[in-house]
Amino acid sequence: MADAGPQALCAREPRVPAERLVAEMVPPPRFDSVRFDTYEPDPAQPSQPEAIAVLSSFAAGLGGAHASGSGKRRWFARKPAAPTGPRGVYLDGGYGVGKTHLLASLWHATPAEPALKAFGTFVELTNLVGALGFQQTVQTLGGHRLLCIDEFELDDPGDTVLVSSLLSRLVEQGVALAATSNTLPGKLGEGRFAAADFLREIQGLSAHFRPLRIDGQDYRHRGLPEAPAPFSDEQVTKAAYATAGASLDDFPGLLEHLARVHPSRYGALTDGLSAVCLTGVCAVPDQSTALRLVVLADRLYDREIPVLASGVPFDRLFGDEMLNGGYRKKYFRAISRLTALARDAKPLVSQ
């Protein structure tokens, strides 16, 4: 048995300083060691090796001076011309085709020190703006060689305007961009909002990227067994007490707690955990709760924290209305990632 009982996520209320948000804009632990040569293309999908070639060339092209002309210039030197054409690449593809692997590989391959490269999810980027303010974020990221944005999602018109304006300012300063999403940049808003202003912002934003399609099936399900069925409350509780560094929470209680913690702190919420154990997993009651759970699932997946659960299987977390709605891509991603983490947690239960 573990020396101490399990922790509780519901007892944690982390406070995250803005400095930590900036310092943590690097590939998460799960993707810390990935490289282009560790990506395993599907032989049946020629777009996958093509993506490696394009991104490798893109990274090599970022090895020169910063496009904004960083470094000293003589008084008679010409001001660098503003970048023309797309200043970034946009990896478009379905779930589990390795987009994040490729995006992290691009970050690692770009010949610049880590302090001049930033990597974060779309949500983490908007949280950074909220913590630092718009102008300070532009100043902080404006000297970077590369900004990688994973899971580019536009959930409301406000975020659309914010990120569009931010990226436009960064492009003007010579920052190269790379992003992943499950939808082509010109169609990000389909099925969500029909406001003319929203669609106009989408069009302007898409001009910053060269779309790079990546076809394929979810690698998490290639030749792998089905996700394990949920365990009993007793099994989950026993495993939590027997696993050093594990947490143990009642799922409905955890959902209530997530409503009181800002999503920018969900990563800190999981600090130091070796496993997350949940009892009484049930269908999520509403969309706001579901979107918070998606963010938590992303942070757990990034940190490779196994999830052991009782209750309903993870593929029944979201009802048909949610899975057929405008945020379905997020929900399917969460199901895919939680399923992978459930497989990882299976050895925690004594056979």
Architecture overview:
The chain has 13 helices and eight strands. Helix 5 runs parallel beside helix 6 (157-172) and helix 11 packs across helix 13 (328-345). The protein is globular and about 60 Å long. It is 39% helix and 13% strand. The strands form two sheets. Strands 2-3-4-1-5 form a five-stranded parallel sheet, with helices on both faces. Strands 6-7-8 form a three-stranded parallel sheet. It is an alpha/beta fold.
Tags for this entry?
351 residues; 5-stranded parallel β-sheet; 39% helix
Structural class: alpha/beta
Give the mean pLDDT: 84
With helices defined by DSSP (H or I, 4 residues minimum), what is the helix count? 13
CA radius of gyration is 21 Å
Strand order of the largest sheet: 2-3-4-1-5
Report the β-strand fraction as a percent range.
5-15%
| Residue windows where pLDDT falls under 50 for at least 5 positions | 67-84, 191-195
Helix content: 25-40%
The description of the largest β-sheet is: 5 strands, parallel
Number of strands: 8
Q: Tell me the overall shape.
A: globular
Distance between the terminal alpha carbons, to the nearest Å? Answer: 15 Å
> H/E element string?
HHEHEHHEHEHEHEHHEHEHH
